[in-house]
Amino acid sequence: MNTMLDILRGRAGRISVEGCRLLKEFSGMHPKNKPGDSVVFISPSGNQFWNGLPPAGKQVQTQLLPEIDRFSELVRVLSRNLPTTAQQGLTDTLEQVRNAVEQSTSTWWKTPDEAVQGFRELADGVVTTLAEYFGATTDTVLAIPDTNALIANPDIEHWQFDGFQQFQIVLTPTVLGELDKLKVNHRNQAVRDKATEVIRRIKEYRRRGILQEGVPIVKDLITLRAIAPEPNMSQTLSWFDPNNNDDRFLATAVEIIRDNLRSTVFLVTSDINMQNKAHMAGIPFREVPPEPVRQWNCTTTG
Known about the structure:
Elements: H1 4-26, E1 29-31, E2 48-50, H2 55-78, H3 84-102, H4 112-134, E3 141-145, H5 147-152, E4 167-171, H6 173-185, H7 189-206, E5 215-218, E6 222-226, H8 245-259, E7 264-268, H9 272-281, E8 285-286
Parallel strand pairs: 3-4, 3-7, 4-6, 7-8
Antiparallel strand pairs: 1-2, 5-6
């Protein structure tokens, strides 16, 4: 499974490859000042003008700029708790990356080869900073199930994930609210019954301790924790809709990742729409563990 650092590193790598291709194959520069000019232009952003991009280069640029913007926004949201110098360094570097692709300002690079080298160094610098702060260095594993995951397999004490024996299941306010609604309002009796069963189990686990601090449900292996605060929708990804429960769930997941940068964090969902949104947001996810096979006693007497 890809960790958040893996996902960010992969996105930065794709931006680096496509940005270098844009600069190598389609870009050019010319000096602002020509010999004999009576007026000399001096700019802090550089003394070279970008040449206009050909149609093929504009196509690469058009595809790359939104990817840079999505990546930059995710990094900005996740790095909110980092030291100010680290935040500013990432912001400045990502701005330079975007400027190199947008090519609407001047530059100090004099040749495409020089630009490629400089761009690659910028992208590598972002990855180095991310690795310093986002690399998983603790044994803590946080699994965040959506509502459908708990309905599909409410037997969470038997959940298993490849590669992890110990993990913490984190319940979000959105999921708990949806469970309460499902147990009463869903048209399907089976769903109402499962939602009721999940809530019953959660209340039973709560007797073992304080859910907000984490309670054991399988000794030394699985703990359960509930998050009380609603997500701050003004400080999350801009495309999240505060009136959409899926987006509120994802916003909470982003906050959990941001507050646990050194831990392995992933969603648990088999909902294809949720998986697509998680992929777009850069959030790792895993499928819901299958329910355990029941062993029935089929012996008879005669």
